[in-house]
Prior knowledge:
By secondary structure, the chain is an alpha/beta fold. It is built from nine helices and eleven strands. The chain has helices spanning about 15-30, 60-65, 105-120, 185-190, 195-205, 210-215, 220-235, 250-260, 265-270, and strands spanning about 1-10, 35-40, 45-50, 70-75, 80-85, 85-95, 125-130, 150-155, 155-165, 170-180, 240-245. The chain has an eight-stranded mixed sheet with strand order 7-8-9-10-6-2-1-11, with helices on both faces. Strands 4-3-5 form a three-stranded mixed sheet. Helix 1 crosses helix 8 (about 250-260) and helix 3 crosses helix 7 (about 220-235).
Amino acid sequence: MERWYFVDSGHLTPALNMALDEALMNWHSEGKIPPVLRFYGWQPAGLSVGYFQKVKGKIDLEAVNHYGYQLVRRQTGGRAVLHDDELTYSVIISESHPDMPPSVKEAYLVLSKGLLEGFKELKIPADFAIPEEKLGTSGSAVCFEEPSWYELIVDGKKAAGSAQTRKKGVILQHGSIPINVDEDKLFDMFIYKNEKIKQRAREAFGDKAVSINHILDTPVSFNDTKAAFKKGFEKGLDLELEPFQLTEEQWSKVEDLAKNKYATDEWNLSR
């Protein structure tokens, strides 16, 4: 059984959340920390866009501000995700780790075993998505409208979305596990040609994605979800998780990175 660090960072701003993921990647690359599993929430709620995703003409920035949300650009690819009532996870691990396959798709399969076991802890019968057709054909900016390889689905509906990047020999995979979803607010974040198309997309969304409390008869809290997925990752990846607290100096570096990168228009609106 391998020992990883476990970082329970609570609810942070969108900029701090992305900065902490990057800092953990850097420290792991430098050999200062072992692999890491991190759980977190968002305060205020955030709309994260993929590294290559366009904002202009796709994201309604006025709506983001209207709801008091904050936009942030991820290091990882993929499409936009509204992070509100959810558990977010990140895994930081070396590409050279003996359990990590060289391909992104197969690495997804290994790491997503923790998610699968987490859903099992909640008595939710989830499965891995194995798409039959080419992904990304819808043209939508919304992440949860279609699953990627080995993301988690329940009754054919996407229940968790993940994204991955590799830098300096380190894999970062992070993802969203929605507990509740406000579909009206979600679709207000995106620009559509007209209100009719927007309404049609909103109505179709219920057949494509699902949240934990939409599945369960008895609703669960953020802490309930966190406890279930902690057990899930321990079981799915055969881990012993050691709690890790950042030092004041480490937090200072994270805060600087958040302020000078992830909170700036230069980074967030670059595309």
